[in-house]
Amino acid sequence: MPAKVIIGLQWGDEGKGKISYLLSRNADCVVRFQGGANAGHTVVLPDRKLKFNMLPAGSAAGAKPCIASGVVLDPAEVIEEVDLLRSIGIEPELMISGAANVVLKLHKRLDGMIEELRGGKAVGTTRRGIGPTYSDKALRTGIRVEDLLDKKALREKLEILERVHGIKVEELDELVKVGRLIAKYVGDVEIYLNDLLDSGAEVIFEGAQGTLLDIDHGTYPYVTSSNTIAGAACTGCGVGPTRIDEVIGVMKAYSTRVGAGVFPTELHGELADRIREIGGEYGTTTGRPRRVGWLDIPLLRYAVKISNVSWIAMTKLDVLTGLKKLKICKEYVVDDEVVKIVHPSVKKLEKVKPNYVEVDGWDIDQGDWRKLAERGWESFPPEAKNYVELVERLLGVPVKLVSVGPEAGMEVWR
Ligand code: GDP
Ligand code: IMO
Ligand code: MG
User: Fold this and answer.
1) Could you give the CA distance from residue 125 to residue 38 in angstroms, rounded to a whole number?
2) Which amino acids bring their CB within 6 angstroms of ligand 2?
3) pLDDT per position as a tens digit, 216-259
4) Which CATH architecture describes the domain 252-413?
5) What architecture is domain 3-94+187-248?
6) Does domain 101-182 have CATH number 2.120.10.30?
7) DSSP calls for 339-373
8) Residue 408, SS3 per DSSP
9) Ligand 3 is an ion; residues with CB less than 5 A from it
10) Is the CB of 35 under 6 A from ligand 1?
11) Ranges of each domain in the chain
12) What percent of the chain clears pLDDT 70, i.e. is strictly above it?
């Protein structure tokens, strides 16, 4: 099918990078449509680990990378990641929308300052300047990629920005320089993508962050500053909703969250440490330890519903190996009432009590997963299959892909 949107169903870091890489192998183009260099998408090749903050991770599979206008662009990262692709023998035919807003040094500074001012209520942002850049975009004081190519216009816009923020912005020459470096990539991504879809080409829309970090549908204010749900692919790229053929929801076999905010199924102590270590749960972008918890079905039900997810890719099932019992939060109890699905408003989530179902774990050698992935789903331990099938039943959406290791090949299609 030609247009597939990949999104995270939890708080980010679900393994979208791997899934995008897998699906982009058959695609003509892969596009980032929201967020910025706060994203950290990992692709593990047999001999190398690649980390993408700005370019779609699917570009490592050779699909043409695009960055659409819904993204906030960090030009220095773009240049670095083009070099990263060159280092694996790919000369990317990158296209960046001239309408994407640019993250300035000023925005990163403001990001840090606002976090400090929030004190104990800090969001725990990546400090990549994401919120302040989207704020300037909404205020209509933003700098667009196309502005970097016109020094006179850029100077005038920076002057407005200085007056609005009351801060000196001494970035003109630097921005003009970086503008020259990326000028050859700038194009009308939105027109290009629509024409490509008209021609029957396959396009992957690679979402960043996760549904629970969506500015409208997440745990506000502990969220990022963009929409992260499937619909954002349409607004972020100028592609009509009827174009989208499939929405692929990526979820981990457990929950993680980096940064502050409510987390009803959070685990602490030895079990959390164990999952964190085995799962390598440290932020790709910031290196921060990720908070860890059991799966949260009421929140996943919400995520699946609002993006009308076609099928699920479940990652990191291997990480749960060796635990005697596993828990899944199947519903909440709120004021003595059972709740099956919930809007992730902090006010609501602060009152919920998770109701868990306990299932048997499985124990095999971690090293056996590669062999099992090659043999297929039927060869998986029955308890592991039961875990996936239970999630499928609870969510009412097929889990078509189960990933059991970071590399391509360490997954099975069901
Ligand atoms: P993204 O932001 O959603 O792309 O996810 P990240 O790349 O930030 O984090 C996912 C991490 O898990 C990366 O280090 C991946 O290499 C790794 N990973 C992906 N799938 C699997 C899997 O099935 N098993 C294991 N053990 N690691 C995985
Ligand atoms: P990927 O695409 C996990 C989190 C931050 C913080 C909140 C706001 O790799 O899944 P921001 O810098 O966006 O203003 O931070 O959002 N956050 C992520 N958490 N994965 C991400 O991206 C994230 N991008 C932002 O930790 O809690
Ligand atoms: Mg990540």
Assistant:
1) 8
2) 8, 11-13, 38-41, 123-126, 128, 130-131, 208-210, 213, 224-225, 258-259, 284
3) 999 999 999 999 999 999 999 999 999 999 999 999 999 999 98
4) Alpha-Beta Complex (3.90)
5) 3-Layer(aba) Sandwich (3.40)
6) no
7) ES-----HHHHTT-EEEEEEEE-----GGGHHHHH
8) coil
9) 13, 40, 284
10) no
11) 3-94+187-248, 101-182, 252-413
12) 99
